[in-house]
Amino acid sequence: MYKRPNLYTSYESETQILPTWTQKALMAFFIIQLFLLPFSIPVLNDDIPGLSWLPLIGDGIPLFRFLGDGEWIRASTKVLMLIVAAHGLNLLSGVAGQVSLGHAFFMGVGACTATYLGSASGSTTWGHSLPIWVWLPGAGIAAALIGIFVSPVAVKLRGLYLAIVTLGLVFLGIHLGNTSWGAKIAGPPALGRKAPELDIRLWKEEDPLINMSDDGRWLWFDIAEEGKRYLLYLVLAIGFTLLAKNLIRTRTGRAWQAIRDRDIAAEVMGIAEFRYKVQAFAISSFFAGVAGALFVGLSGQTLATDFGLFLSVEFIAILLIGGAGTTSGAIVGAFLIYMMPQFVEEATKWLSDQESGVTGVVGDTILTEGDDLGFINTSTVTPGWTLSVFDWNIVLFGVLIIVFLIFEPLGMYGIWVKIRNYWKRWPFSY
Amino acid sequence: MNNFLLKLRQEPALMFLFGVMVPITVFLAMQLFNDPEIFFATLMRSLGMGSTYAIVALGFVLIFKATQTVNFAQGALAVSGALFLSFAVADDHIPLTTIDNPINSLPGPDWFHWGVSLVLAMVFAAILGLVIERLTIRPMVGQPLFSVAVITLGLEIALRVFNNDTVKVEFRNVKVPWGIDGFQVGKETINYSIIAAMVTAAIAFVAVFIFYRSRLGIAMRAVAFDQEAAMAQGINVGRVFAIAWAAGAVLAMIGGVFATQPPVKQSLAVDNETANIAFRALPAVILGGLDSATGALLGGLIVGAAEIFAGQYAAGETDILGAGYPVIVPYVVMMIGLLIRPYGLFGTPEIRRV
Asked: How far is B248 from B55, CA to CA, in rounded Å?
């Protein structure tokens, strides 16, 4: 039977993740493409005739094919990691309404646990070189335990007080990570610390069941090390997305939403406020811990300063730009927030390219000197007011947060709903 | 006495605080008898630190009282103001131009030039605060408070890049007239900047308390109490917002200047860590209560004392506590304080209704 949008005849159909067959088919197509991304498959890699002049979307049949190439796959993997963490913060702040600036701290806890459990011990470092199926959940559980430990303070507070206390956790975490014993648990690579291995083993045997650290051949296709890692992260990201979605649409999630909307009213209705808040902190921290472990698996190093305020703000931005309280918002937000700077960097490179970019076309008219693009400095690090591309990306990030909050408080999700409603109701305005 | 014991038994957190405070007091009394000079110097430094925190905290409180939001961009405002001061004092030219710095051609001694620059920097900070309030905060009236707070976080990130870029190659000295000098107490030196911070804090707090009694100050308190009711009484809420932001930015700038001085820092120059003074002062604000000027003063002094005394007397345990541990002491104090009083010492508890 053809389903009309917004017409539900049963509770089951209303809580379905993908209500219509069109959505199911599109999602299946999308996920298959995501899985095919790291493989080098001849058909997919061919140029689309007539579109090859486009620098990004020209090569390969799926439009986002370039995300699987060379340097881009690393960025895609990082987005998957961010998605896992963003789901965690979404559950806590978007669904349960407990604003937290301490997400980076819990990621750091996860990262340190993963390093401690997963990498080898040395003269200056402690470690157990356990396989991934121990250190990955271990990281999540350690973070969740810390989350439970902190939550009695957090449950007492609300609003900005909570935000600032969790901000304090971030500073505390960075400091503890830099102490001498913190460095032994999960020190920087300078102390001889290696990142935990992603190889899948039963225990500490020589030959892993699935080798993740070399290029190899899976099924019938060649795949690079980065591609393998991407696939592992993809599976985890899909798993955690399903988990988050199911948490939101079942009893726990409904209780959280009730607490978010009006906590006293929720309590009056018989929702155990304390228990559900602690639960929200624990589950959110679990997500963060796993994401922190994945962070280490990707970056190959555990630096306490990586898990600072900036990362926390990044997650808040992901939530607000994607749309707080929605699973899709966390995904879209993570993609936008991490990929936007990469695109800007590419665009800047293209602009300053002497042959095909603006520099080549327009010449000296808009340029000051050499490779510099007016106020964007691409060549040297100089003091003054010509910032580097990296700096401009940070400025862009800050401005993006401000602009989105002022003009579209519901984030990308709000924009999507507006567009959808426009088409659905056309030619009527409402 | 019985009442007190009963309260202790009911509140485990209070018992914990009591259990911690008594040994610390005894320990400090012992130190006082041991070496009064060091104790006195530490006390002076802690007062200087506390005054600096209190100044920055007062900026937070003023903005919170009017707009009900925490201004996370306070650090960026502090550095922007301090940088303006350093450009006015230390440079021969106006930045990016070849025009001579007009302040240098004024008659009078150096401290007069510095005073003129300070006033200019205060004006600059106030204008910066006004512009930010107008562009980013005013359109958000009526939106969730957290969204406004996140906007200020975005501002902090964006502004900090410019500030850090300015001090990347050379740190900018703010050239205070009292310099690095100080007077001697036994073997310990007490910098004049400590006295300056204390005097400034005193002036700032007296000014704010007088301001609260003025017509405009009463309007501000009315807005803090209930925005809509205040508006209905004919109070111009927008103007109250603007004044609070201007005052907050000026206080941030002054805090930024003192953040380059001992006891906060020995360098006398703005560098890329100066902006952290705002985040270091946040515990003071929270401990005192977000909407109380008295709380800002007391919170600042408590937090400053905790930081400096811990830095002086726990230095033997650096191996365990980690280098630079005094910086996080305020946060620990804040968390313990919040366990006992979730809205700070003087904060107004939020009334929750169904």
From this structure: 10
